[in-house]
Amino acid sequence: MAKSKTRPFAGIPNRVMEHPDFHALSANSVRLLLWFAYQYKGNNNGKLCAVHSQLCDKGFKSKSTLSAALRELQANRFIELSKGSGLGKNGRTPNYYALTYESVDEIRGFEMDLKPTNKALRTFIDDIDNKRCA
C-alpha cells in the first residue's frame, strides 16, 4: 500500500473559526491570520512574522493597513507578540508573533520574550479562557 505524502496547509481550527471573535474580525485581519497560519509548520509558533515587503503583493498595499490588522489580531487575542523588534547587524529586525490557538514552541537559537508553553495561550472556549484570566 502506497504511503500518502502530507502536503503543507494553512490550518485554523474549527473552534477558532466558529468563535464570535473570529466573526467580528475585519477582512484584512482574517487575511493576515491566514498568513500566520500559512507560516506555522508545527514547530515554529513564536517565530511568525508579518513584514510589509513580504505582504504588499498579498493584499496589504499600505503599511498602515498591515499595522491595523496586526493591532486587531493582538487586541482580540488571536496572536501575541513573542519577540519585539530591535537593531541587528543588518538594521532593524522584525516583530515576531505566536498564534494563540497553538502552544508556543521552543525554537533552538531563537530567544523570545514569550516563554514556550505546553498548552495554547487561548482555547477559544469562553468558559475555559475566562477561568484562566480570573
Structure in words:
- The protein is of the alpha+beta class and 134 residues long.
- It has a single domain (14-133), classed as Orthogonal Bundle (Arc Repressor Mutant, subunit A), CATH 1.10.10.
- 34% of the residues lie in helices and 10% in strands.
- A two-stranded antiparallel ribbon has the order 1-4.
- The longest helix is centred in the first third of the chain and has 13 residues, at 27-39.
- The chain starts with 13 loop residues before the first helix and ends with a helix.
What topology emerges from the helices and strands here?
Blueprint: H1 14-17, H2 20-23, H3 27-39, H4 52-55, H5 63-75, E1 79-83, E2 87-88, E3 91-92, E4 96-99, H6 126-133
Antiparallel strand pairs: 1-4, 2-3
Tally of alpha and pi helices: 6
Give the radius of gyration. 16 Å
Strand segment tally: 4
Alpha-beta classification: alpha+beta
Main sheet strand line-up = 1-4
Write down the domain tally.
Answer: 1
Average pLDDT taken over every residue: 89
Helix and strand succession?
Answer: HHHHHEEEEH
Shape: globular
The CATH first-level class comes to Mainly Alpha
- Under CATH, the topology can be stated as Arc Repressor Mutant, subunit A
Give the strand content.
5-15%
